[in-house]
């Protein structure tokens, strides 16, 4: 009787262990699948964003031919809470107002250029400050800094791809050249996805795109 009970106990134990192993395998597979799906969605969003700015793509030629397929996820970060009371200083009569990005559901505007560009005295050409920022002036009167780049980074173009996601195009200076970059800011999850291109340009001018985009802009 004891041997029979021991046998039954061992059989049940092996069955439970097998079920537990299968469950862990299924959970791991599901997690991997979710990650792959998420990356696929992000890549599709990048493709749509790049398609809206052919001039940004063209500026990299002939050094490199930039395409959506060449961007790979470099890192994912949490967005730091850099929020403070401040209303949008760029009013409707400001020359930079049309260059801000209005929220698709009316929740303020994103500013990419006001801290980057300033007028030079006795010159019609814009002067570019070394640092770059993505700043969201929300409708509730709060200012939120979503992305900050030092002198090695250039933030050149942006686009709302949904009410909770903002796409930024730019470049990053490295030792051997300039790399095309895409930053996807997810406001709902407070996550920042950084995508780097798989090639470098050795003759890229990091101020050329903004100089051309803002040509003729009267900042005085």
Automatic annotation (TrEMBL):
Signal peptide bounds: 1-20
Swiss-Prot/TrEMBL keywords: Signal
The protein's name: Lipoprotein
Keyword Signal: yes
Domain of life of the source: Bacteria
């Amino acid at each position: 009787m004891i041997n029979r009970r021991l046998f039954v106990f061992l059989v049940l134990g092996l069955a439970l262990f097998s079920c537990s192993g299968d469950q862990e395998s299924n959970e791991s597979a599901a997690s991997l699948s979710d990650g792959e799906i998420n990356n696929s969605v992000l890549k599709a969003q990048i493709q749509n964003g790049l398609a809206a700015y052919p001039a940004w793509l063209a500026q990299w030629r002939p050094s490199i031919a930039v395409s959506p397929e060449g961007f790979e996820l470099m890192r994912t970060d949490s967005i730091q809470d850099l929020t403070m009371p401040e209303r949008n200083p760029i009013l409707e009569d400001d020359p930079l107002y049309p260059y801000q990005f209005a929220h698709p559901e009316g929740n303020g505007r994103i500013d990419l250029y006001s801290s980057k560009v300033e007028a030079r005295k006795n010159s019609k050409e814009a002067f570019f400050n070394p640092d770059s920022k993505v700043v969201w002036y929300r409708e509730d009167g709060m200012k939120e800094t979503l992305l900050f780049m030092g002198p090695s980074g250039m933030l050149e173009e942006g686009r709302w791809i949904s009410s909770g996601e903002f796409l930024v195009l730019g470049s990053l200076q490295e030792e051997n050249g300039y790399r095309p970059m895409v930053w996807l800011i997810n406001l709902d999850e407070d996550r920042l996805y950084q995508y780097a291109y798989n090639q470098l340009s050795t003759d890229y001018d990091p101020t050329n795109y903004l100089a051309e985009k803002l040509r003729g802009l009267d900042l005085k």
